[in-house]
Amino acid sequence: MAADSNPSSSHNLRITVERNPSESRLTELNIKCWPKWGCSPGKYQLKFDAEETCYLLRGKVKAYPKGSSSEFVEFGAGDLVTIPKGLSCTWDVSVAVDKHYKFESNSSSSSS
């Protein structure tokens, strides 16, 4: 049975990590104008009500999808990370995070 046959399954909500994006890609996204957010090391329960794209200036994170203790996505400084709308996960932050972030507005993600 294909894992993606159930669209409401949280396993379709994958965090994607683009490692070391080019300077031109960062400029194109206008990342320096995005708001900033940071957190100290620790564990955080997070729920994403909108798709978030973030660029880590520093830090190291293991993100565990809700209900999973073995499966995780690891990312850190220099990574461009996209977190899908509707994902609940635990961030296990080993190195304090400093990041630029942006939430996708509904108007731009609607393709119809």
TrEMBL record:
It comes from the Eukaryota. Pfam families: Cupin_3 (PF05899). InterPro entries: RmlC-like_jellyroll, RmlC_Cupin_sf, UGlyAH_Cupin_dom. Residues 29-101 form the (S)-ureidoglycine aminohydrolase cupin domain. SUPFAM superfamilies: RmlC-like cupins (SSF51182). Coiled coil: none annotated. Gene3D superfamilies: Jelly Rolls. This is (S)-ureidoglycine aminohydrolase cupin domain-containing protein.
